[in-house]
Here is the input.
Amino acid sequence: MKRRSFLKGTLATGAAAVAVNAGLLTPSTVLAEWNKNAFSAKSTDDALNSVFGSTSAAASGDIKLKAPAIAENGAVTPVTVDASAMSGVESIAILASKNPMPLVCTYNFASAAEGYVSTRIKMGETMNVIAVVKAGGKLFKAEQEVKVTIGGCGG
Amino acid sequence: MAIKIRMRGKSKGGVAEVKALIKHPMESGVRMNKKTGKPYPAKYIDTVKVTVNGADAVDAQWSGAVSANPYMAVKVKANAGDEVKLSLTDNTGETGEETLKLK
Here is the structure.
C-alpha cells in the first residue's frame, strides 16, 4: 500500500515537472491563459461572472441548442450550439448547471469562424445544459434540460 | 507522447465544418479511485486552437467536464485547399497537433 502511494506521488511530481519544462521550452506557443477562476467556480453565476463579467443573459431563439432530452450515458452527452444565425458572435460557453464545476468549455471566435460548436460533455445527473453566447457585446442564452439515467462523473 | 487527433472536413460555399476526434482520457481530477480513496490525478485538455492558413479562427478552453476521447466540430470560413490546423495542450503540458487540407 505504501509502495503504491509512493509511486503515485513520484508520478504526479514527474508530470508537474514535465509541464514546467514544456512551459519553459515553448513560451511562444502558450495560448490565451486558461481561466482558472471560471473553471473552478462552483455555481453557474460565478462562472459566468469570471468569463463574461456579467450574468445577465437574455434568452434568445436564435441560438439553437441541440442536446438529447434523455441521455443514456451522462459521460458522453452530445451538445451542439449553433449561433450562426446571429451576427458578430464572439464567444460561446457551455455550462452544465449541477456539475460540481458547472463551466464545461468556452470557445472564442475570430472573424474566420462561425458561431457553431459541437462537442460531447460529461453530466453527473439530470440537469440543464446552458449555452451562453456573446454577440455584439451582449449576452444571450439558451437552456435545455437533459435527463441523465447513468451519471458521468462517478467511478 | 503527442496526443492523437483525427480530423475531417469539407468546404461548402466558403464554410467548412471541421470535425475532430481526439484520443485523450480527460480525467477531471474529481473521480475517485475506490481502492485508494484518492482522486485520480487530473489530466485533461485545457486549450484548443484552430487556425485557417495560419490565422486564428477558434480559441477554446476546456475543463475536465468534456467527455473522454473528445469530439469537437466547429465551422470556419475556408475554401477547398485551405489548411486547417488544430493544436491542443493538456494540463500536464502534453501537446497534440494535426493539419487538414480541405477538400
Q: What stands out?
A: Helices of chain A lie at 2-25, 36-40, 44-52. Chain A has three helices and nine strands.
